[in-house]
Design brief:
The chain has about 425 residues and is α+β, with helices and mostly antiparallel strands. It is built from 16 helices and eleven strands. The protein has two domains: about 160 residues, no CATH class; about 240 residues, no CATH class. The strands form four sheets. The chain has a five-stranded mixed sheet, with helices on both faces. A two-stranded antiparallel ribbon has the order 1-4. The termini are far apart. About 0% of the residues have low confidence.
Length: about 425
C-alpha cells in the first residue's frame, strides 16, 4: 500500500519529467526557429546577389558578391536566446548597401507578440503564413493567431492612422524636418501613389514622425496641403532647416508655407544623381571627390573641393557638373548649424532607411490592396521605427538654434560688445 510519502515522491517525479519534456520541446522549437531564420536569411541574400549579378565594374568584376559571414550574434526571442550568423554582402554600387529585411542590422531582441505580428507582415510574411512563422519564433504563445487576425489588425492600423493624422500639434516646435516621397504599387489602382513623409526633431533632440500623407506624385500642390494641414492643427513655429532631395514640389511649397526655413539638399540623393551622369568606371573616384566636399570642416574648404570636382569633370561631363553646381548653396546650408548636428542634417536617411522595409513588403505582395491599406502600413512601420531613432548629438545646442544664435562653419558666432 502506498504511503503519503510515496504519493509525494510520485507527484514530484511526474513534475520533474514534465519539466524535462517541456525543456526538450523548447530546445527543439528553438533549434527549429534558428534553422528557419538561417534558411530565410540565406535565401534573402542569394536573391539579392542574383538580382544584381549582371552589374560589373570597369574590370568586369561583379559589384554585388557574398563575402563570408558577419560575426555571430544572439537574438532574444520568446523561446530564449537564438544564435544567428548572417551572411556578409559586399555591394560596390554607389550609395547602395544590403540590409536584411528579416534581420535588421542592430536587432538584438524580437519585439513583443503585439509588435511582432505587424513587423512580420511588413517584412513580407503573408497573412496565410503568419501562423507558421509565429509558431516557429514564439512557440506555443502563438496559438490562436490566424490570417483573419492580420486582416483585423490592418483595419485597426488604418483607424489608428486616422486618429494620429488628426492629432493636435499646438505647443509643438520642430527645429529640423526631413522630407521625402515614397512610391508604392497598389493592386486595385493603375497609378502608383506617392506617400509623403515628414520627420521632425524636437527641441530636446528626439526625432518623431510628423506627417504621412497620400500625395499625387511629389507635386507642389500635395506638399502644400501637407504643410497647410500641419499649420491648421496648431503647428505655429516654422522649422529652422528642412532636409530633402531635389523634388521641386516640396521646395516650392516650403517657400510658400515656411519662407523663413532654410533648405538643405540630401547628399545621398545628390551623389546618386551626379554619378548617374558619369561612366561607371569613374564612380569610385567621383564619389570620393563628392565626399571631400560635404565632409570638409569649413565652407571654404568645401568650396575648394567643389573647384577640384569642376576641374576634373566639368569639361568632359558637363551634365554631372551642372547637376552638382546648380544646388551648391542648398548643399552647403548645414554649415550654418552646429557641427555636432551635421551628421544628421546632410542626408534624409532617417526616412530612406526606415521605410526600406515597407518597399520590401510591397514587393513581396506585389503591391498593397488599397491606398488606405498602404497608408496604414506606412504609419505602423513608421511608429515602430520611431522608437529606435537616435537622438541628435549635442541636443543641448537645439535651444541656441531656436533662439537664432548664429553659427559659422558649425561654430557659434559670439557677438562682440559695442
Amino acid at each position: 500500500m502506498d504511503t503519503p510519502n510515496d504519493k509525494i515522491i510520485e507527484i514530484k517525479a511526474a513534475q520533474q519529467a514534465s519539466l524535462v519534456c517541456e525543456s526538450l520541446l523548447e530546445e527543439t522549437l528553438r533549434a527549429g526557429a534558428q534553422r528557419l531564420l538561417a534558411e530565410a536569411i540565406e535565401a534573402e541574400v542569394e536573391d539579392y546577389v542574383q538580382r544584381h549579378a549582371q552589374e560589373r565594374d570597369g574590370r568586369g568584376r561583379r559589384l554585388v558578391v557574398r563575402n563570408g559571414h558577419l560575426p555571430e550574434r544572439t537574438l532574444q526571442t520568446g523561446l530564449g536566446a537564438v544564435r544567428v550568423k548572417a551572411p556578409r554582402v559586399e555591394d560596390g554600387r554607389a550609395g547602395q548597401r544590403f540590409t536584411s529585411a528579416i534581420l535588421p542590422r542592430y536587432l538584438r531582441k524580437v519585439p513583443s507578440l503585439e509588435n511582432l505580428i505587424p513587423t512580420l507582415y511588413l517584412m513580407g510574411v503573408s497573412s496565410s503564413d503568419m501562423q507558421r512563422a509565429l509558431e516557429a519564433i514564439l512557440g506555443p504563445g502563438a496559438r490562436g493567431l490566424s490570417s483573419t487576425t492580420v486582416v483585423r489588425l490592418k483595419q485597426v492600423w488604418q483607424q489608428e492612422f486616422a486618429d494620429w493624422n488628426g492629432r493636435d500639434l499646438s505647443g509643438k516646435e520642430y527645429v529640423y524636418v526631413w522630407a521625402d516621397g515614397i512610391y508604392f504599387n497598389v493592386r486595385c489602382e493603375d497609378a502608383r501613389p506617392c506617400i509623403l513623409v515628414l520627420v521632425g526633431a524636437l527641441a530636446d533632440g528626439t526625432k518623431e514622425l510628423l506627417a504621412i500623407a497620400d500625395g499625387e506624385r511629389e507635386s507642389k500642390c500635395s506638399w502644400n496641403e501637407v504643410l497647410r494641414d500641419l499649420k491648421r492643427r496648431g503647428l505655429a513655429a516654422p522649422p529652422k532647416l528642412a532636409v530633402g532631395d531635389g523634388a521641386l514640389g516640396f521646395w516650392a511649397a516650403l517657400e510658400e508655407q515656411w519662407p523663413q526655413t532654410q533648405g538643405q539638399r540630401c547628399w545621398v540623393h545628390k551623389t546618386v544623381n551626379v554619378l548617374d551622369k558619369l561612366p561607371k568606371k569613374l564612380h569610385g573616384t567621383a564619389k570620393q571627390a563628392l565626399h571631400e566636399i560635404y565632409l570638409s570642416d569649413t565652407r571654404a574648404h568645401a568650396g575648394e573641393a567643389f573647384a577640384a570636382f569642376e576641374k576634373s569633370y566639368a569639361d568632359k561631363y558637363p551634365k554631372a557638373w551642372q547637376c552638382l553646381d546648380k544646388d551648391r548653396a542648398a548643399l552647403l546650408a548645414f554649415y550654418d548649424f552646429p557641427a555636432a548636428h551635421w551628421v544628421h542634417l546632410r542626408t534624409s536617411n532617417v526616412i530612406e532607411s526606415s521605410f526600406s522595409m515597407v518597399r520590401h513588403r510591397t514587393r513581396q505582395t506585389k503591391g498593397c490592396g488599397s491606398r488606405s491599406a498602404t497608408l496604414g502600413m506606412v504609419y505602423k512601420l513608421g511608429r515602430e521605427c520611431e522608437t529606435k531613432w537616435r537622438r541628435l548629438n549635442s541636443h543641448q545646442l537645439m535651444s541656441k538654434v531656436i533662439q537664432g544664435t548664429r553659427f559659422a562653419d558649425g561654430v557659434e558666432v559670439h557677438q562682440q560688445a559695442a
